[in-house]
From TrEMBL:
This is DUF3302 domain-containing protein. The chain crosses the membrane at residues 6-25, 46-66. Residues 106-129 are annotated as: Disordered. Keywords: Membrane, Transmembrane, Transmembrane helix. The keyword Transmembrane helix applies. InterPro entries: UCP028770. It comes from Vibrio aquaticus. Pfam families: DUF3302.
């Protein structure tokens, strides 16, 4: 008799743990969206509940939707591409400045003692162009 009640209690406990576990798992995309301050976090939350009734068919898409957004860069890598483009132009400007400074140093050395002019080294950047 005791084992019957113990088995029933264990069955109810396992059912509750599985039910609660499924709900917690389906809130993972919403938690990710909330952490990243996603602009559609409410929609992701509601879609997570809908996913319970669609036999989890849309849940992987919710995960992807939640992880695509980053507050610092938005939806994609456009901001990173712009930053890399800016850095590339700054490096080009610095290379030009270094070349100009090398020429000035060479001219100054020539003026001081008629020493041999120093040829500026070619950089890999100049070879590319």
């Amino acid at each position: 008799m005791f084992l019957d009640y113990f088995a029933l209690g264990l069955l109810v406990f396992v059912a509750l743990v599985i039910f609660y576990g499924i709900i917690v798992i389906h809130d993972i995309p919403y938690e990710i969206a909330k952490e990243r301050e996603h602009p559609h976090q409410d929609a992701i939350h509601y879609a997570g509940w809908v996913s319970l009734f669609t036999l989890h068919a849309i849940w992987p898409f919710l995960w992807i939707w939640a992880t695509l957004w980053r507050k610092e860069r938005g939806w994609g890598f456009q901001k990173l591409e712009e930053e890399q483009h800016d850095i590339h132009h700054r490096v080009d400007a610095l290379i030009d400045q270094v070349s100009q400074l090398q020429q000035e140093v060479s001219e100054l050395k020539q003026q001081q003692g008629g020493s041999k002019p120093v040829q500026p080294r070619s950089t890999s950047h100049e070879e590319e162009q």
